[in-house]
Write a structure and sequence with these properties.
Structural class: alpha+beta
Helix content: 10-25%
Distance between the termini: 33 Å
Radius of gyration: 20 Å
Strand content: 25-35%
Largest sheet: 6 strands, mixed
Number of domains: 2
CATH architecture of the largest domain: 2-Layer Sandwich
CATH class of the largest domain: Alpha Beta
CATH superfamily of the largest domain: Probable tRNA modification gtpase trme, domain 1
Length: 337
């Protein structure tokens, strides 16, 4: 993250922990605001890659699980990059920005993914660049989101996974009343001041909880190469095309889909205490080996933690679930808000 932007947030009450904004001074109030009012969050847990050049579309289409060739100029899509074994190395939100493509991914994968992608460029006219320090990513959610965007001179796309460009930034509609804003670093402080006149600043983990509630997983360093896309529901999010040509891991992903061999699925769970990414899940009826893994986790407004977990379907539906060990902290499925 750009140090100038970090210093700006510090002067506006941000408290940092583990390279993200922990809170703005009142974590309990900020969590409560997530489901009660309009909030704005610095998305410090995300990085931004830019893939440009005349062959960028073809290159990404041949590497990622989604249909990049048919991605329209005002659309965004979920996508993933897989190993040859069909395991997700990274997940992305991808969209077009002028003559290039921008990909949002977990920031802790930035030391690995750009360099690894570059290895496959070969003779293609493609440039892969980490632009995380050049842009600021903001999350805006709540009933007054559209009002806040309009007051700041920004558009508010109405349809999920569509984008619109305004004078100071690009806005992605993730879902009704939930937006992601991409703004150049120099313009970010002024935009922040405008948006916070309508929205309450909250820590990054509040936004992560909103992603968990929406069922949108993010592959991070600790879960890279753990899941095939279907385990993380990426086919349901539109992040996998079964009609395009080859890409790394495509045979495994297609065989998994058409033979119906996916025994692990994504579930939302909660616990009274802390849940951490990568922790194993055990079920009482199968105590000898883990039946699942925590993909993402965050504090919840109702107390405790909530998480997205990839688990064996049989254990999720019939077994008593525990974290880290069969006699560990209890986990329960969340089936509704």
């Amino acid at each position: 993250m750009n140090q100038t932007w970090k210093d700006f947030l510090l002067t506006h009450g941000a408290r940092w922990a583990n390279l993200v904004v922990a809170d703005f001074g009142d974590p309990a109030s900020e969590l409560a605001a997530a489901s009660a009012t309009t909030i704005i969050a610095p998305l410090a847990h995300l990085g931004l890659l830019e893939v440009g050049g005349s062959d960028a579309a073809a290159f990404l289409h041949n590497q990622l699980t989604s249909d990049v060739q048919h991605l329209s100029p005002n659309a965004a899509q979920h996508s993933a990059w897989c190993s040859a074994k069909g395991r997700m190395l990274a997940s992305f939100l991808i969209f077009r920005a002028s003559d290039s493509y921008q990909l949002h991914l977990a920031a802790d994968l930035l030391p690995v993914i750009p360099r690894r992608l570059q290895m496959f460029v070969l003779r293609s006219k493609v440039v892969v660049a980490d632009r995380t320090d050049d842009y600021v990513l903001l999350g805006l959610a709540g009933a007054q989101s559209r009002v806040a965007l309009a007051a700041s001179g920004l558009p508010a796309p109405e349809t999920a996974l569509t984008t619109e460009v305004g004078p100071t930034g690009l806005v992605i509609c993730l879902a009704p009343e939930r937006y992601q804003v991409v703004v150049e670093q120099a313009a970010a402080p002024a935009l922040w001041s405008q948006l916070t006149a309508q929205a309450q600043p909250v820590g990054t983990s509040v936004w992560q909880w909103l992603d968990i509630r929406a069922g949108v997983p993010l592959i991070t360093r600790r879960t890279s190469e753990e899941f095939v896309p279907q385990m993380a529901n990426f086919e349901r999010l539109g992040g996998v095309s079964f009609h395009k040509g080859c890409y790394p891991g495509q045979e495994v992903v297609a065989r998994t889909q058409y033979l119906g061999k996916v025994k692990r699925h994504l579930y939302r769970v909660r616990a009274a205490g802390v849940i951490d990414i990568g922790q194993a899940i055990y079920a009482s009826d199968n105590p000898d080996r883990p039946c699942g893994t925590i993909a993402n986790a965050a504090p919840a407004p109702a107390g405790g933690y909530e998480a997205l977990a990839v688990m064996q379907e049989s254990c999720a539906l019939t077994g008593k679930l525990a974290l880290a060990a069969v006699d560990g902290p209890r986990l329960e499925l969340v089936t509704s808000d």
